[in-house]
């Protein structure tokens, strides 16, 4: 299997796996217990919190969650006032905002251009006094486009609003602007385990709890933490921090190689060619039957869009938002690669995808 779906989940780093094992096997105590075993587990959790925070702005607190979906729900439901967001946000944001709208909050969804980037003039028209929350993704999960989150945060603060950044795809890869007030991250996008994420909360920002109970986490999040998951997240964050430059250069080389082969075969890039994370390659070839392509190439793991919308029958709302037709959106694929992707594997996969798509056109 050639794995090219890093936006859905990254391979677990071996170092993270090894760090988790003792907490699964031997050191199983509840980190919220007062006895010695509990205090040992608590120390591991706090060490992990520091490692995760090292990739985030100063002046805030990391509260662990079950993942980014919980973190985003908490951030949105825990605030008040009108909401402004972008048309290309993740379903965890858009669906939660739809819920908030049903509860009576006013919602404005700002469109993006054909490059996937928000028009800051349109955003400024929408972010006005009375806005309580502005929510924007740092790196888009489907196209890799990097939004001007710092500029959006400035607009939010001028209007007296709180800035929420969905940094799930950008954490450890692109700098999180220091002016954000809330930042959601997830471990399994940076070679950590699934089932743990975090919400970074700027000092002085108060949220209503999403989960009620013991209030174990800063900010009021309730629930018993897993020291094993925290330890895995910790190591993944440390590796992302120490290897950020090397990983970035690696994916940039892979991106250039793969895109060159696709473009030579008549494929087109979706989204900005420059303002993007290079570990995400979203391309299209009009007329390609992507479902058939994936069926013909079952030993290559790639995506027709977000894994979270898989099986919904809908084409990508992100690709439609940048102006693609229904047919163009349905003839697009996403390849995600990173630290453990070998160039020869990527080339082999790209060439086979191109050949299979060409065979479809010949048969038609």
Which sequence of strands runs across the widest sheet? 2-8-7-6-5-3-4
Q: Which sequence of SSEs, written as H and E, runs from N to C?
A: EHHEHEHEHEHEEEHHEEHEHHEH
CATH C-level name of the largest domain: Alpha Beta
Q: What's the mean pLDDT score?
A: 96
Tell me the CATH architecture of the largest domain: 3-Layer(aba) Sandwich
Low-confidence stretches: none
Oligomer: single chain
Say what the CATH topology of the largest domain is. Answer: Aspartate Aminotransferase, domain 2
Largest sheet: 7 strands, mixed
Overall 3D form: globular
Helix content: 25-40%
* Tally of structural domains: 2
Number of helices: 12
Give the DSSP E fraction (strand runs of 2 or more residues): 5-15%
Identify the CATH homologous superfamily of the largest domain: Type I PLP-dependent aspartate aminotransferase-like (Major domain)
Could you tell me how far the N terminus lies from the C terminus, measured between alpha carbons in angstroms? 28 Å
Using only C-alpha atoms, the radius of gyration works out to 21 Å
